Amino acid sequence: MSPEPLGILAGGGDVPLQVAQAAQTAGRPVHVVALDGWADQVWNGFSLIRERPGAAGRILGHLRAQGVRQIVMTGRAQRPSILSLRPDATAARMLARIGRAYFTGDDGLLRAVARALEAEGFEIVAAQDVLRDILPPAGLLTRASPDATARADIMRAILVVRALGAVDVGQGAVVQQGLVLGVEAIEGTDALLARCAGLKREGPGGVLVKLVKPGQDRRLDLPTVGPETIRGAVAAGLAGIAIEAGGTILVDRARTVAAADAAGLFLLALHPETFNETETTP
């Protein structure tokens, strides 16, 4: 029996391309839908169409014609207004299923989109089910490690990010010397770090903490850290980054860790439930 084809609804960033490459290496036919305005990768060697997000009829019709049943939804995307979405008949039907969830947080919306796709006969697959080693376990990933000040800031940021996640707002926060310099909302991590660059205080640099939202559907929109995050953290004057072990996508691990080491930043994967600011290991 030939391998089952995989569909990828691709937003921006490196993860969609890495998922496609991993599936292709495993022998699966891959059919990519690059979403206009979001997908910014070069897709040489892949079956590809480019469509606007509101053209659900053409998107799903194409995937069905290719025999696709399983879909990975991955990559950066910003929520369009319904007016700019210009939904076709299929998208309008799906929006009717989504209902008020369109106006909730990202996890609530993505859950509703996933349910609408399932109602259309597709199965949603997590990116990490294709990229098996993309979620790092607990541990220090870099030569640098957080000192007592940084660990106290991590503890403070964990509380803040959990509070954000509980109301489905964001997955990250920057804390310096106990002060919350910024929290992630619709703008994303890169914009958060750029904003915090102008807010940093004198003295020890702050920390970025990224966590999974409480009860989040882990097939969809897990926190992501990669080389761009390291560049943003350096520009913001941070001491390091802490991420949730087993719940944060680490893009291009070797390059990300090398960039952090070159900048003298720490990168720590931790379990937020058990992290203790006085311990020397996560």
Account of the protein in words:
This protein has helices spanning 15-25, 56-65, 82-85, 89-98, 106-119, 127-130, 148-166, 189-197, 227-235, 253-263, and strands at residues 6-10, 30-35, 47-51, 70-74, 123-125, 139-140, 172-176, 179-183, 207-210, 224-225, 240-244, 249-250, 266-270. It has 282 residues and is of the alpha/beta class. A 6-stranded mixed β-sheet has the order 6-13-11-9-7-8. A 5-stranded parallel β-sheet has the order 3-2-1-4-5, sandwiched between helices. α4 crosses α5 (106-119), α8 runs parallel beside α9 (227-235) and α9 packs parallel to α10 (253-263). It is globular, with a radius of gyration of 19 Å. The mean pLDDT is 92.
- E-strand count: 13
Mean pLDDT: 92
- Assign the CATH topology of the largest domain: Cytidine Deaminase, domain 2
Structural class: alpha/beta
User: What's the CATH C level of the largest domain?
Assistant: Alpha Beta
Q: What is the number of independent domains?
A: 2
Whole-Å distance between the termini?
45 Å
Low-confidence runs of at least 5 consecutive residues? none
Over the alpha carbons, how many angstroms does the gyration radius reach?
19 Å
Strand portion: 15-25%
The CATH fourth-level homologous superfamily of the largest domain:
LpxI C-terminal catalytic domain
Instruction: Give the name of the CATH architecture of the largest domain.
Output: 3-Layer(aba) Sandwich
Strand order of the largest sheet: 6-13-11-9-7-8
Largest sheet entry:
6 strands, mixed
Strand and helix order: EHEEHEHHHEHEHEEHEEHEEHE
Multimerization state: single chain
Tally of helical runs? 10
Shape: globular
Helical content stands at: 25-40%
Pfam family, one: LpxI_C
Protein name: UDP-2,3-diacylglucosamine diphosphatase LpxI
Organism: Roseicella aerolata
Domain LpxI N-terminal: 6-133
